[in-house]
User: Fold this.
Amino acid sequence: MNVVHGVTLQGIKALKVEVEVEITGGLFVIAVVGLPDASVKEARERVRAALRSLGVSVKGRVAVNLAPADSPKEGALLDLPIAVGIAHAKGEIRVPGPTLFMGELALDGRVRRVRGAVPAALLARDLGFPLFVPEGNAREVSLVKGVRAWQVGHIRELFAHLRGQSQLKVIEQAEEATGDPKPDPDFSDIKGQVAAKRALEIAAAGHHNVLLTGSPGSGKTLLARALKDILPPLSDEEMMEVLLVRSTVGLPLDSSRRRPFRAIHHTSSTISVCGGGTNLRPGEVSLAHRGVLFLDEFTEFRRDLLESLRQPLEDGFISVSRASGSVTYPARVLFVAACNPCPCGFLGDPVEPCRCSPSAVDRYRRKMSGPILDRIDLCVTVPRLTPDELVQAEGQGGESSTRVRERVLRAREVQWDRWKNLGYQCNAELPEKALRKQVRLDLDGRRFLKDVAGRIRLSGRGISRVLKVARTIADLAGEENLSTVHLAEALAFREGGDLPWDR
Amino acid sequence: MAKHIDLGAAGEAMAARELLKLGYRLIDTNVRMKMGELDIVAEEGGEMVVVEVRTRTLGRMVPPEATVGPSKIRKLVRTGRTYMESVGWEGPWRIDIAAITVGSDGSPKLEVFRDITVGIIEP
Amino acid sequence: MLNACGCFDARILTIIESRRISWEDLASGSGAAMDRLGMKESARKEFLGLLSSGWYDREVESCESMGVRLIFSGDPGYPSMLADMIDPPLVLYESGSGLPSGERVAVVGTRRCTSYGSNCASDLASVLVDVGVAVVSGGARGIDAAAHRGCMSSGGRTVAVTGTGADISYPASHSALFREIREEGCLLTEFPLGTPPRPWNFPRRNRLIAGLCSRCVVVEAPEKSGAVLTARLALEAGREVWAVPGRITDGVCKGSNALISDGAMPLVDIRVFAALVSGRQGALFPTGGRREDTAGPVLTPEEAEVLRILADHGEMTVDNISAEGKMSAAVVLRGLGVLSAYGLVAPGGPGRWSKRTQGRG
Assistant:
């Protein structure tokens, strides 16, 4: 019965790998079955060096079998279990029962931090196995409830622990971080911009995707970053999802309930955004899961990159594949896109003249279409405030993010109650059919919408968007019934409503 | 070049003496097999050891241990394996090199390189 | 055909008469006749080329099938105002409902206008319609388009004089606009069918705009702009030139401002100007009845307040409006949402809104 186990990662899930060791006569060699060749050579060297540093001399032919043989494995994570397996087979140490080991070995025997500790911890918990992880991963594992784990700094300590000579440090479950992290930036740090802030409040309340249009220096990035702090804090389940993704990438973790914020640039590679590469690692869109994904200079994004963001937008996850297999990562994000009003950026600016020809502006506008824009419910323009206006705004104390978040939370509760039987959480999630059925207008409202829709030639999709946003506006106001007042405000955020008319 | 063979024989004798001092238990010397020759066969630390002896006078440019090239190593491995089988040894074994350098004043120096196939042999 | 050679205008007719060149001779391509006319080598070649290829018949046929009317100098339908010019056009290609008789005013300006300029042009055109004046412009982007649209949205008739053949829409994005103009007014050009927009066509077209109207208004134009040229041509033709003043720090209206200092009349009040043009005092005080005709929407007090603030203060951000009217952002946005849908306000740039008095672009 094999007691020594390691893990391999498939997406954000850890799979157990059994380590079987058999030592026979012959020239000394470590033969590893079940790892790709390149990793074998490296793992062998590290393991041998680490064992030698302990004075454990290994002789004869050592056959290491990693089962299941055909699943792709990552060498570095398996150093420690292989070393333990060899030592166990030699009788140097005894592993009492099925145990999970994880860690990369340095040549001097130190155990190095690896990625995927949280998935491994969940696996250990599910299997009921004890878990040994590198010191550097202790923090992550402490965030997982219900797992028996120890942290290892040097393989010597581990062997001493297994021999009963000393004790490794137990990883205690971390205490919940008390209090909310300080909003960065806080709404009150941003001067003026009440229209944009209102749009963000609505976006946060109903989980609506937003488009910010404004000249360079108008503060679009700052506003986008402020959104994450008015979103509700992560729930337990959501936090675990976020931890899983971050641990899979190998990023540091903390127990804050703040939503992730990731910004991608139009020059980012598709792999860095969507995931992929040698070990099929998650990309930015997954790191933004349950948070905000910011697309700056939206009009410059390549078509193929935008296309690949369709799946996260529509389904909330993303599939990454390679010849060796495919994996799905979670990718449920709130999209915030930002762009300029024209190629030079200063169309309609009170101070800077616009240098663009009308046809250049037309061409630029035409770039603003496609799968992402279709799913953006709120379009708001951000003026570049002149120094005078900034000074004026100084005096008007803006609300703090905490205050705004309170309203957002109340609106979310209303939506949760309303939609729970249908399986939705927010107004933005509603598909067209459900929307028409569930979101009802009174006679005035219907007349109003009909009148306006005709004047501005609102498409069917456009009407749906207005209804969704109006529903959220009403929820923020604590109103059950939709009225023209909510529709009117929703109209201010319609697509194209912010653009200067044809010149 | 008789001197060369003399040096060799003297070297082997000297190596054997030094190895004993290091705790090796001599089993056999000058073992001739069909595919090759083993200078010394010994036992040390629970393993069987095939020792290949190399001698050189100081002043030559190539250190003695470097004269054991890949094909020589392969030959030693094959020969060694056959030997172990023939004597019925199923346990672990290794190949060492005993390098003897003769100084200009005639004084010999012995250096032992343990387990030279580690990292080189593929399973 | 002489027209098509591209270098002749109606003066040639007088020359032909005075030198007693017979039309038959010319029509048969007689070298002697061409000599008497003093035709240049290049023009001769062109002329003979057209003759031999049977261009005339083809052109006439195409015009007929497209509904384009050919008006020759001397025809009864030829605008008398053009005949008064020094160099009137030989031929006019007219498509649409025909040139409106009565008072005509040219409204011209730059392609790269600001929202202020566009607004002005549109509102001016719209008010001119109310007093029975037709609006003439060049069918280009920017001020021209705003003037045409402003005129048509008030139900008026507008004339677009183009620098291309009657079958070409330049810019291409204006093909729908031109279709509308043909319904509500007419398209005029001096150039034969198929003529593409060449830079040197436009000064020639500008003189037609100037010639057709009693007054020429330049709304917003930088120095060295085609609109400024039109104004000068109008002056030469003895027409009244007006210009709308703009911010002296903006390059986009340097030309129109300069016209004022050179003697053009500053247009500072649309209604007063309209009254002047039409000679009708009544234009100064629009009747309540007319208000209802345009089926304006009924505004809530909040919406009306937002509109009032914009009317009083010009271009504002939501922050400004909110501070001025002591209304929350949500209320202001509500107002802007409705007002913009009804075409009463529009953004000039990101986040900056202003009122539009009448008409919609």
About this structure: DSSP finds two helices and five strands in chain B. Chain B touches chain A at residues 45-47, 77, 80-81, 84, 89-95, 115, 117-119, 121-123 (CB under 8 Å). The first helix of chain B runs from residue 2 to 21.
